[in-house]
Amino acid sequence: MIKENLDIIRKTIPETVTLVAVSKTKPISDIQEVYDAGQRHFGENKVQEMTEKWEVLPKEIKWHLIGHLQTNKVKYIAPYVHLIHSVDSFKLLKEIDKEAKKNNRIIDCLLQFHVAQEETKFGLDFEEAKELIENPAFIDLHNVHIVGVMGMASFTDNENIVRKEFQQLENYFQLIKSYYFTFNDDFKEISMGMSGDYQLAIEEGSTMVRVGSSIFGTR
Ligand SMILES: *Cc1c(COP(=O)(O)O)cnc(C)c1O
């Protein structure tokens, strides 16, 4: 069942778009099944859960932290995390840099933007993102690497709203790229799109979709 779901999703995603299989709340056996089908990128939203899974599953898995990250928990994932999608403050970025350095790593990060209508969603607005990058201490962070942006659209059936929010995130990406990363080819990722809206997200320029329930079933 899970394997069939994965095959269906893969057929609808261009090869240039990275599929992150969101395995939060799902057991090791489900993840192993998806891994055995060739999937390597997995996403989790909780530090402890992700770390427990990392410990027992194959080390070839690339783990994406997609949920809100508290500074005091960075140390647990710094040894192994592949990409942190949820950077929303300079303080957090600085902590990731510190822990990456301790582990002799450079950790890839995305800036999380707030584009949805709901107030509860985390993320930066455009001004806050500029302030973060223009922080005088930003250039001293040698062990973090900003490779793009991430965002979540509103929970709504209204396609127009969701599409507009994805367009806004894509626009933020282009602006940030032209202001700060013009000559940096590594700034290239737009992480947007979940089970309900990933096709729309791809139409609007997503390079990375985070799909959970359409692969693993409802949580
Ligand atoms: C849970 C989650 C997803 C996946 O959601 P589905 O609707 O199950 O595909 C994607 N992104 C984030 C940030 C999530 O927390």
What does this structure look like?
- This protein is α/β, with parallel strands linked by helices and 219 residues long.
- The chain has a single domain (2-216), classed as TIM Barrel (Alpha-Beta Barrel), CATH 3.20.20.10.
- The chain is built from nine helices and eight strands.
- The protein has helices spanning 2-11, 28-36, 47-56, 74-77, 90-102, 126-134, 159-180, 198-203, 213-216, and strands at 18-22, 41-44, 62-65, 83-87, 107-114, 144-152, 189-191, 208-211.
- It starts with a helix and ends with a helix.
- The relative contact order is 0.16.
- The model has no long low-confidence stretch (mean pLDDT 97).
Question: SSE layout and pairings?
Answer:
Blueprint (H helix, E strand, L loop, with lengths): L1 H10 L6 E5 L5 H9 L4 E4 L2 H10 L5 E4 L8 H4 L5 E5 L2 H13 L4 E8 L11 H9 L9 E9 L6 H22 L8 E3 L6 H6 L4 E4 L1 H4 L3
Parallel strand pairs: 1-2, 1-8, 2-3, 3-4, 4-5, 5-6, 6-7
The structure holds pyridoxal-5'-phosphate.
Q: Which terms summarize this structure?
A:
single chain, 219 residues, alpha/beta, TIM Barrel, eight-stranded parallel β-sheet, 9 helices, binds pyridoxal-5'-phosphate
